[in-house]
């Protein structure tokens, strides 16, 4: 293909069965703790500068969709990970998995746990799935092992998205992601459609392909009275990685256009470094109906419609 975005690499020839019971049988009886790892969506993403080490300074409003991976853990002598779910074949259960990297960072001297990850968030998609899994592992294992959750400065070493994913609530991301600040209260009941063309984009490549001047920071108002006011304010912001993602992966433009054309869509934009795009709706019912019609039109895309994770007013 002529552009460097890829059909997701499958790690096994045959997709793994998506069992009704999603835990390894031996773990089921002894589950002690469970955490959701919701998908992160950047409602806007400004790149405001660049550090000497090459990392970019960001200003972003991150929210979380109720689309989520699930982690469960039970006590064990050794540390192990089993991965199931619709996207299990895209990542391995080995030491490179961010869940195990998070576990090792929390307790380098080697505490044990039998961890199961149900992978429902598309991989390398701009939805911070790996970072959210790492953050959920930190929350889960800190409870199981009785150790404190690490600071944002420590968490960011696992990935720039991990600090905001630790909060798993609407928040402003600043610095390279290590500064997590409260977001204004969002209108309750927002609906969202997520659409991904079944391709992956590597975050470093998208940052490398970005060009042009840096953005000004975007200062949100103290509150958004309703969904229309939120969308109107968002129209004055942008995702500064969108042009680079479209250049690397032209189908992103089609996904954006399809999201923008959904009946009831208040705004459509790419999340993070893409290629997943989202559309915002005033209600969850509108988002679900729009997702169903888009799924009929684009049967090969990953389409999800629903609400925000633990929708509550007030953010952090
Ligand atoms: C772009 C964002 C926006 O929320 O989301 P995703 O598209 O990954 O979901 C994040 O900043 C991504 O966070 P994350 O995916 O954890 O990034 P990391 O693993 O720390 O970094 C991967 C690479 O992206 C680049 N990078 C990342 C973050 C940042 N603030 N500046 C950068 O330049 C660097 O080249 C880095 O080596
Ligand atoms: N638990 C995990 N879930 C998803 N990706 C993971 C995980 N562990 C490691 N990775 C790796 O992290 C990279 C980024 O994945 P992901 O967080 O899904 O991307 P994005 O932030 O763009 O949505 C991928 O190369 C993937 O192989």
Fill in the keyword field for this structure.
alpha+beta; 6-stranded mixed sheet; binds adenosine-5'-diphosphate; Ribosomal Protein S5, domain 2; globular; EC 2.7.1.148; isoprene biosynthesis; 316 residues; 4-stranded antiparallel sheet; 10 strands; disordered C terminus; 10 helices; binds 4-diphosphocytidyl-2-C-methyl-D-erythritol 2-phosphate
Short description:
With 316 residues, this protein is α+β, with helices and mostly antiparallel strands. Helices cover 27% and strands 25% of the residues.
Q: Helix and strand layout, with pairings?
A:
Layout: H1 25-28, E1 33-50, E2 56-74, E3 79-84, H2 98-106, E4 113-118, H3 129-145, H4 152-155, H5 162-167, E5 171-174, E6 179-182, E7 191-196, H6 203-209, H7 227-234, H8 242-248, H9 251-260, E8 267-270, E9 277-281, H10 284-297, E10 302-307
Bound molecules: 4-diphosphocytidyl-2-C-methyl-D-erythritol 2-phosphate and adenosine-5'-diphosphate (ADP).
Adenosine-5'-diphosphate (ADP) binds at residues 91, 96-99, 123-131, 133, 161, 203, 272-273.
């Amino acid at each position: 293909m002529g552009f460097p975005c890829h059909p997701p690499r499958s790690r096994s020839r045959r997709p793994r069965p998506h069992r009704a019971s999603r835990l390894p049988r031996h773990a089921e009886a002894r589950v002690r703790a469970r955490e959701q790892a919701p998908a992160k969506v950047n409602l806007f993403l400004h790149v405001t500068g660049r550090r000497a080490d090459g990392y970019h300074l960001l200003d972003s409003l991150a929210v979380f969709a109720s689309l989520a991976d699930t982690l469960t853990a039970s006590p064990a002598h050794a540390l192990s990970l089993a991965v199931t779910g619709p996207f299990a074949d895209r990542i391995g259960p080995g030491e490179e998995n961010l869940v195990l990297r998070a576990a090792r960072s929390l307790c380098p001297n080697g505490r044990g746990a039998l961890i199961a990850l149900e992978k429902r968030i598309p991989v390398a998609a701009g939805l911070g799935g790996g970072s959210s899994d790492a953050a959920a592992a930190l929350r889960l294992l800190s409870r199981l092992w009785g150790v404190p959750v690490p600071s944002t400065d420590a968490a960011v070493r696992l990935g720039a998205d991990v600090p905001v994913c630790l909060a798993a609530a609407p928040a402003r991301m600043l610095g390279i992601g290590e500064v997590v600040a409260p977001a204004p209260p969002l209108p309750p009941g927002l609906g969202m459609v997520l659409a991904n063309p079944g391709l992956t984009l590597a975050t470093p490549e998208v940052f490398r392909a970005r060009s042009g001047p840096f953005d000004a920071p975007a200062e949100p108002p103290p509150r958004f009275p309703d969904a229309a006011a939120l969308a109107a304010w968002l129209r004055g912001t942008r995702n500064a990685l969108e042009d680079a993602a479209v250049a690397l992966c032209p189908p992103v433009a089609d996904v954006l256009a399809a999201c923008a054309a959904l009946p009831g869509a208040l705004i459509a934009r790419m999340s993070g470094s893409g290629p997943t795009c989202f559309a915002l709706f005033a209600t969850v019912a509108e988002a679900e109906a729009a997702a169903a019609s888009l799924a009929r039109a684009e049967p090969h895309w990953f389409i999800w419609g629903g609400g925000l994770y633990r929708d509550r007013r007030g953010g952090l």
